[in-house]
Write a structure and sequence with these properties.
Chains A, B: Its cofactor is Mg(2+). Chain A is mainly alpha-helical and 296 residues long. Helices cover 71% and strands 1% of the residues of chain A. In chain A, α1 (3-23) crosses α4 (65-86). Chain A starts with a helix and ends with a helix. Chains A and B meet through α2, α6, α7, α8 and α9 of A and α2, α6, α7, α8 and α9 of B.
Amino acid sequence: MAPDFRAALVAAADAVDTALERVLPKPGGAHARVHEAMRYAVFAGGKRLRPFLVLQSASLFAVEPEQAVRAAAAIEALHTYSLVHDDLPCMDDDDLRRGRPTTHRAFDEATAVLAGDALLTVAFEILADDATHDQAAVRCRLVRELATAAGSNGMVGGQMIDMLAPDKTFGADDVMNLQRLKTGALFEFCCVAGAILGQAGAEHEARLRDYARDIGLTFQITDDLLDVLGSAEKTGKAVGKDQDQGKATLVSLWGVDAARGKAETLARRAAQTLAPYGPAAAALQALPAFLLDRDS
Amino acid sequence: MAPDFRAALVAAADAVDTALERVLPKPGGAHARVHEAMRYAVFAGGKRLRPFLVLQSASLFAVEPEQAVRAAAAIEALHTYSLVHDDLPCMDDDDLRRGRPTTHRAFDEATAVLAGDALLTVAFEILADDATHDQAAVRCRLVRELATAAGSNGMVGGQMIDMLAPDKTFGADDVMNLQRLKTGALFEFCCVAGAILGQAGAEHEARLRDYARDIGLTFQITDDLLDVLGSAEKTGKAVGKDQDQGKATLVSLWGVDAARGKAETLARRAAQTLAPYGPAAAALQALPAFLLDRDS
């Protein structure tokens, strides 16, 4: 893997962690427990892929770093909320996340629901906070786009389908629709956020959306491959769950080799989509190969 | 009760219901179930007190009705999310709400969590949607204020304390702190939203916050009185729960008569606070008496 890519990923994680440390509420008051649960869930050593996408896409359009880091922190808070709620007993009922007890196991179910609610809420607060009059229109658009990507016709809709899926016979189109909603919409937001912040216009937004769709599906296929081929030790969560639950995935539908081949094709296309940006897009272009090679 | 007040309350309910019908997603796609649950929770015949507060406060400052109704719809979506999540088995574990099965009873727990998440998300989408460039700064501020009122140092923080409360010996100050967070912060947002939309300035905002604090506490005391004195038939939910759970309330701490006396004092002060607005504030001034007299 290109050392520049690794450096960019680490830099994004550092920048967003510093910002989250600052903007998340400090534990305090009779309700400090919910602040502690929010921080437990957020500071769990995630890869910070989504902040990386925001910061790198913003760097293509000369966005002020402070603005980009703010959007990245918002998206990571929102992403963390989705993990906390998805892990709940009434949802995926997971005990482990990134190798540690899930939030409802480390605290309790009520606290996990509330911490998730608060992380979703604070994401919008971060996006809307400290906006100058000139920035307000762009911030408003980010709020709207993030809400659309995360809401009932985006991430939440995808999780709804996922909850219903075991009852149904899903084909590849159904699985891709599920992926597009559950994880794809948020990847799209991350990639387009830089273009929105940089007021780059529709052509650039469309290009970054194309890239986001390809890496989103690459991410999902490699996630499914890890569920089949990975180890709980490396992935930090239970493996073989999809198979155990009889869930259709692109790997179960296409087979391991064909699914991997498809992911490789998507990864190549994603990198090519960003060719017009030249070397400035090198880290984004290296991401698909990283997704293919990851073991967690 | 003044007939004008009743008419204003019904008009607010009609206006916000029409808006919610338009802005909430129509059930569709493989994830239609979450849309259905959102609508089930929202269209349950609530009094629409919070939209009334938004519309009436907006009317003091010549806000365009369309802008005020938008904010009212957002707050009602957000309020509904809080009811859906508060009713969950891991929270208050309620089977009835407004005389009907709660959302997790009518659907299931996962769907209720997701419908709540989606209603919280759509509240911010509604606030940020269709904003002209001129409106963007005001909309941004509404997003920030709503997120602050609803988040971990507002409504969610209050619910966290409520979940912990049975373990503790609460005094009146603790109960009032809980109320201020759990329900007061959102009442404040509703009342100040009109002043924000009308760009009325700090003095008007402070006055409406004073009013909101008094009616918020009036509302809480009368809610506690209904829990002690009301009937399940009229309130549409279980009564006697606080007592059964040994929860401290202002009624249990002060006694029925003193609590009622305090609520009456607050109600009078709330009405007087708005005297500077003359007859334009008549409906807002009639609200405290309505809260005192309600039986549900």
